[in-house]
Amino acid sequence: MGEGSGDGAGPKVAIVMGSQSDWPTMQCTADVLDELGVPYEARIVSAHRTPDRMYAFGKGAADEGFGVIVAGAGGAAHLPGMLSALTHLPVLGVPVESKALSGQDSLLSIVQMPAGVPTGTLAIGKAGATNAGLLAAAILALGDAGLSRRLQDWRAARSAAVAERPEDA
Ligand code: RP5
Q: Any idea which fold 12-160 has?
């Protein structure tokens, strides 16, 4: 599972997910980071199936050179909140769309954190994963003028691509 582009000098984004089955969603985070030239690593870290791996990752993430963690999980989605408890790094949670409850369970598992243990919570599914990547880039851009410029250019290009009038179907 992937390593993103970038010059390798600044902090990386960690994209972690509870299962291989989350990757089609979390790949949207990787895609937008690729577009912005932000380095990242993607890993499977499950709060339930690999708790020791989760603990080690959360405790070591800052020392590994990560600056932001994007954590996606579905169903009983405890991974983002548990990582927030283990690291001072910003954690952005992506509720993966679940089969049984369409991601409502994932969303509610992530969003209602107790005061003092903040976890950013994005929209359910691929839109949330994309926006988590953009937010991660925006956080890192606070200390990286080049990335800030690329992010502004990316946003301007998206705006320029919107037609002023609809075309006939
Ligand atoms: C969660 O359970 C994962 O984040 C995933 O969204 C969900 C289902 O996992 P699999 O049964 O597909 O491995 O822990």
A: Rossmann fold (3.40.50)
Query: What is the structure's pLDDT at 25?
Result: 98
**Pocket residues: Cβ below 6 A from ligand 1:** 18-19, 21-22, 46, 48, 73-75, 96
ipTM of predicted complex: 0.97
Confidence at residue 11, expressed as pLDDT on a 0 to 100 scale: 86
Q: Which atom of ligand 1 is nearest to the CA of 18?
A: 4
Amino acid at 64: E
Low-confidence residues in the chain, pLDDT < 50: 1
> How would DSSP label each residue in 26-76?
HHHHHHHHHHHT--EEEEE--TTT-HHHHHHHHHHTTTTTEEEEEEEEESS
Every domain of the chain and the residues it spans: 12-160
